[in-house]
What we know:
Elements: H1 10-19, E1 25-30, H2 35-49, E2 58-64, H3 70-83, H4 90-96, E3 97-101, H5 106-120, E4 126-130, H6 137-146, E5 156-161, H7 168-181, E6 187-190, H8 197-207, H9 210-213, E7 221-229, H10 238-263, H11 272-285, E8 294-300, E9 323-329, E10 339-345, E11 352-359, E12 368-369, E13 372-373, E14 379-385, E15 389-397, E16 405-413, H12 424-434, H13 443-453, E17 464-467, H14 478-481
Helix pairs in contact: 2-12, 6-7, 7-13, 10-11, 10-13, 11-13
Amino acid sequence: MNTDVSAPNARQASAEAFTADVEPHLIVIFGGTGDLAHRKLLPALYNLLSAREFADTIEVLAVATSDRTDEEYRESVGEALKDAGIEGSEQWCAEFLHYQSLKPGYDQLASRIASIEKSSGLPGNRVFYLAIPPQVFDDTIKGLGEAGLASGPGKVKVVIEKPFGDDLESASELNRILFECFDETQIYRIDHYLAKETVQNLMAFRFGNPLFEASWNRVGIESVQITFEEDIGIAGRARYFDRSGIIRDVIQNHLLQVLTIVAMESPVQLDQMSIRDEKVKVLRAISPLRPEEVVRGQYTSANGELGYLEEEGVPNDSVTETYAAVRFMIDNWRWQGVPFYLQAGKRLEERLTRVTIVFRGPPVYLFDRDGHRQAEPNVLHIILQPNEGFDLRFQMKTPGEGYDLATESLGYRYADSFADLPPAYETLLADVLIGDQTLFVRSDEVEEAWRIVDPILDASDKPHGYPVGTKGPIEGDRIPALDGDRWID
């Protein structure tokens, strides 16, 4: 397809739909001087708010431990916005951006919040965004509660970045601490992957197209593969990643969330409670993992590129996995006997996130040649990044006598129809402001996901090596081979 220059702008349509539902708010960003705030949150907030008629009803207060004046902070944010390609942000920074050091304590923070709300005529709707390391979640949440900031004259919400704990026990403890100060309707656990338009479109693709939904089950589908490949390494995040590994960092959250959307039953309606209920049902139906259903890998040096153990900050005896392949089975009526293969890795040959649906072959193979089956299974690739869209593979007869078959492809790309997709953080921040929790993770989802992967965390055996720039360790092929399958390219 050719790109249609008159195609609708998805970001503009999303913004227009969201505008009418936004109430005045104060957004308080903990970790306001950090990398996440400067690279992601503040550019997203500026793009979301700056051109809207309600822009003068949203104030932003950044909080961190360093001593800075409002002017110093605004100058640093202005530079960050320029780095993000945003020009002309000076007026917005000067009028709506504030800074408060946390050193004087939470009572002083409460006073500053009250002062900004009074001077700006805000009704007390507050968003506390915890863009901070997970090890200080507990103290921050308790500080908000003790200062009386967990409730207020308006609606109070708290936004938490992943990871939500690092195992089932710590996740349950984090939920317990949250519930001492907030209730579930106030808590927004962010997994930015859920805000990708292509992830959300999985539901529309399934439930809006009976052609696919009719075969979206154990009768029509042979296997499901969900792949997350990165061509980059740990990007200076050794301190975090070596404690985490790819299973905690990607599979427990991003990929299991994608799996729930692929496997869920149709919700009663498209509201946040119904959708999240169906996702939890999928997680609860996943069978306990067995050791043979997991392969772990770690990238090694190749072609002058560093291996994981040579990365700065990584212990030379680390057994943290940078690749993992896992087989999940879902014990319910729809998916009984259908394997779900998940693989994720760093320093692989390309950047790609994709869901692959392998449909069952025909009951009788008519097109054998010399005893070998010509027909390949129908395969649906749903590409989440990059170049979002889908490809459907099917069989066609080649010209000439006889029945020689060839695999052809029917494809679609979002860019052919939509000029601009809204970035994930803009979507999530908009949903927080209007109070829509559909794309956020509920406490029982968090704990069920940790329950599933808990048995395979903290393995002490040495991961299988794989050279930088390859498909991963050859041992990863063992996972689909459990069912006589292979990874589909």
